[in-house]
Amino acid sequence: MSAAGLRLRAFAPTVLAAPNPSAHTASLVFCHGFGATASDWQDLHRLPGLDHLKVILPQAPLRAISINSMQPMPAWFDILSMSHAARTQDGDEDEEGLGESVDDLTQIIQTEIDAGIAPGRIVIGGFSQGAALAMKLGLAGKLRLGGVVALSGYTPLQWKFMLSPWARETPVFVGHGTADSVISFSTGEAGVARLRGAGLQRLEFQTYPGMAHSACLEELQDLTRWLQKVVPSINRPEATGKPKL
């Protein structure tokens, strides 16, 4: 690997146990955005009506970032240009770094599976760059998960984004603000159109007038409703098989 995007230091994820650990039957793995930290999303642990949901907040490693004069920042992969989210040509994105982060998250998910949580009860999500990572893993990954959440994000590697066979049936929640100046609303909207054009049948797209590159109460309420539908509370089953990724 070249110096660009070089991973300098990795960190353990923040794990927030289900509010009712004895009822833990589903898990949400949620990835923060570029330059941010896992702690930014600890409030996901407090979403109402989800006492059975364990929240795992991975922390991106420090990487040398091209657009930051090679200075290290927390990032799931390198950012080669400020217009990366709208690029569609080969070579515009850090495919190697993205693949590394997919592998890291796959290990986290496998740990949940080994603990007895079925793949279909695990949701992968993220914000901004973390949303791009979540879409790559959840829609083009190795295992059929319970759902994908993408907040203020975009579809990575657009020129070669190959959906997994089950992606068309995977529940997807996409939220984006109309006043986003970092990843434009039009970029998010175009990504949704591409995914729907590829045949995704369970994609919910919610827009938030006036919201910038952030989250809002209405969006979190919509996400809560969606999670309650996709991974509802159930009786804890006896451990069965533990499929490997």
Instruction: Estimate the helix proportion, in percent.
Output: 10-25%
Q: Total domains, how many? A: 1
Query: Mind telling me the C-alpha Rg?
Result: 17 Å
Order of strands side by side in the largest beta sheet?
2-4-3-7-8-9-10
Structural class: alpha/beta
Q: What is the highest CATH level, the class?
A: Alpha Beta
Separate helix tally: 4
Could you write a compact summary of the structure shown?
The chain is an alpha/beta fold and 245 residues long. It has helices spanning 95-114, 129-140, 185-197, 217-230; strands spanning 7-9, 14-16, 26-31, 53-57, 62-64, 72-74, 122-127, 147-151, 172-177, 203-208. It is globular, with a radius of gyration of 17 Å.
Give a written overview of the molecule.
The protein has about 240 residues and is α/β, with parallel strands linked by helices. The protein has one domain: Alpha/Beta hydrolase fold, catalytic domain (Rossmann fold, 3-Layer(aba) Sandwich), CATH 3.40.50. Helix content is about 25%, strand content about 20%. It has four helices and ten strands; from the N terminus they run E-E-E-E-E-E-H-E-H-E-E-H-E-H. It has helices spanning about 95-115, 130-140, 185-195, 215-230, and strands at about 5-10, 15, 25-30, 55, 60-65, 70-75, 120-125, 145-150, 170-175, 205-210. It has a seven-stranded mixed sheet, with helices on both faces. Helix 1 packs across helix 2 (about 130-140). The protein is globular, with a radius of gyration of 17 Å. It starts with 6 loop residues before the first strand and ends in a 15-residue tail after the last helix. The model has no long low-confidence stretch (mean pLDDT about 90).
